[in-house]
Amino acid sequence: MEKRKSMAVKSLLSLPLAVLITALFTTSLALAQQSAIENAPWQFGVSIYGWFPSIAGETSFAQPGGGNEFGIDIEDILDNLKFTLMGTVDVRKGRWGIATDLIYMDVGGDKSGTRAATIGRRALPVNATADVDLDLKSWIWTLAGYYRAVDRSTQTLDILAGTRYVDVEQKVDWTLSGNIGSIPIPDRTGAATAVVDNWDAIIGVRGRFAFGARKAWFIPYYLDVGTGESDFTFQGLAGLGYAFKWCDVVGAWRYLYYDLPSGKPIRDISFNGPAVGVTFRW
Q1: DSSP string, 134-187
Q2: Cα 222 to Cα 228: distance, rounded to the nearest angstrom
Q3: Element (H, E) at 20
């Protein structure tokens, strides 16, 4: 009996001792990880790039003086890049980081005799055409925090979450010609503006696969999806790059899409095309 009591007492004493040892081990591990993060150097990256997308979508312009909406497929009108500004800044310490990407585009174009238009959401009469002058300005800003889940010489993988803001302004002038007898006078010529500015939450992944003798060549990739004031937004990128000592040079294909709520003047819009850039790291 005394022997059993002694064993029970030892078991009871060993339980808090095991808990204490586990707590000390967990705390030491957390402190070691925290120390590793604190001792990890800050890493910075600045990217400057050019993106040359084709722009597609559908817009309905409400006429200020009344009349029906004037709608156009913008991909059939835009053909001239007036100005662009694009860049990315990335800051990381240990496995945690933050990145921001800013794009500004000013594009425009005009088309004579086009039928890529609607009046009151109906196609133009068979013998009617439109002369259209369109200007589009857009700001696209992405801000995201990320965690580096995989960090190897041959592969990296970041899990990211954040927000994206888009501000698109379209201005149009139009004149209808041809057999327009059935079209009301207020709809035959006009000028209007359509504006959309949206905030959306996004989640995604990004990284690279390195290959070659010195692992200097790499395949970058990026993917995010989101929603919020938009019904849905999606962005993807893939390409080929080469890493020098102080910078990376990348050529890629980038796609960005917005599906906007019904009732918005811009129903959907996409940017799709090649990009070339250089990233400086230190």
Answers
A1: EEEEEEEEEEEEEEEEEE-SSEEEEEEEEEEEEEEEEEEEEEEEES-TTS-GGG
A2: 20
A3: helix 2-39
Helix or strand (DSSP H, E) at 243: strand 232-243
Contact 229, 200 (CB under 8 A): yes
The answer to whether 111 touches 76, Cβ cutoff 8 Å, is: yes
Rounded distance between C-alpha atoms, residue 247 and residue 165, angstroms: 28
DSSP symbol at 66: S
Residue range 133-180, pLDDT digits in tens: 888 899 999 999 999 999 999 999 999 999 999 999 999 888 888 777
| Cα radius of gyration (the chain) | 28
Phi, psi angle pair for 103, to nearest 5°: -130, 130
pLDDT digits (tens, 9 = 90+) for 55-114: 888 888 877 766 677 777 777 777 777 778 899 999 999 999 999 999 999 988 888 878
Phi-psi region of 26 (alpha: psi -120 to 50; beta: other; left: phi over 0): alpha
CA-wise closest residue to 220 among 206, 203, 202: 206
Give the residue from 184, 56, 186 showing the smallest Cα distance to 116: 56
Cα separations in angstroms, 242 against 151, 227, 251: 18, 34, 9
CB 113 within 8 A of CB 131: yes
Tokens matching residue 8: 């029970």
Query: How far is 273 from 51, CA to CA, in rounded Å?
Result: 7
SS3 state at 78: coil
